[in-house]
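Inputs:
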Amino acid sequence: MTKQKATNVTWHDGEISREDRYSILHQRGATIWFTGLSGSGKSTIAVALEQALYKIGKLSYRLDGDNVRLGINKNLGFSEEDRKENIRRIGEVAKLFGDAGVISLSSFISPYKDDRDEVRELHEKAGLNFIEVFVDCSLAEAEKRDPKGLYKKARAGEIKNFTGIDDPYQAPVNPEIHLKTDVMTVEEEVKIILDHLHTNGLILQPQFTRADEITQSAAL
Amino acid sequence: MTKQKATNVTWHDGEISREDRYSILHQRGATIWFTGLSGSGKSTIAVALEQALYKIGKLSYRLDGDNVRLGINKNLGFSEEDRKENIRRIGEVAKLFGDAGVISLSSFISPYKDDRDEVRELHEKAGLNFIEVFVDCSLAEAEKRDPKGLYKKARAGEIKNFTGIDDPYQAPVNPEIHLKTDVMTVEEEVKIILDHLHTNGLILQPQFTRADEITQSAAL
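Outputs:
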């Protein structure tokens, strides 16, 4: 006999709801918003987190300069107005992803508190999860790493308005997660975020829904 | 013994790829782009398709005026330039969804061939599936339905530049799917789209991955 076990799946004639989508994915949509200096480790952590989520069958999607600046925001420059609009649009895209059920991982310096707070407000008004992750790294350490050689250019005056050099970085006052990348390993950082997702009920059971896992349990 | 059955899941240390995401979802990301007159039935079909996909455990997400005009495009008006930018941004968002693995359902009149072709090109350049669905309805029938009372207002001159009245609708020349809503039922229309998705390998096995289904097969 076939028994209905899952209580979070409802069937109805109306429109498919956010909760319905979450039940397909066994996860709640969320926006994980990494903010920090250039070279602080935002992308490195996002990539490692994406892998860790994939391992437990969870869908995440990274939003970064590569797929945003060349796409939806390709008509934006670096004026104050455009930088603000850049973050606003990313926030709106992240919101749509969260509504769809995806855990989006946004890696942008996003130096201004007001801009980040607006994105947070967008999410909270829509009842969506917004997790601000302060990727805290000393300027000295970020500048030592300088993975893209940008600090060197900024110091040489070849790049203007560079965050940390001649433009301010406004640190989050009360972020959901505070990572100190001067002293933590990437593994530790990923674990902190995963724990947060578990503790806040964003990762639902069953954890394993990938084709191989399903086939495996059937074969046991 | 646990045997690796699925051949489409690869494990690696690098970044998670589009194919990895597709393997989690058992579907390929795709943009289903409904175009047609106001009142032609775009949203009705999208809602019915969303339900049908949910029933087989597939994740879709509707993009429409409600979540786009009030969000990512809230700073756009109805000038020619803004209407073009409206469609461009929706196309970019749909592209991100497709890359993430989601089947997005875009319901916008999108009356101009050039704008739609640009969205198609965006997708094709990125190796993403773009399915243009011409929701073909006679003006007489659409005006008879007039679900939002907009034709009445346009005829009375209260709305200017209304597609089909004082602004052109450029029908798709070679859409992937052509639905004639004057004569087809919504059920028939949904079946045509689902058949297209199956035929083109966008819906992968196993079809049932929702919690209830997994629990059911384990209990059998």
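Remarks. Chain B is about 45% helix and 10% strand. The domain at 24-219 of chain B is CATH 3.40.50.300 (Rossmann fold).
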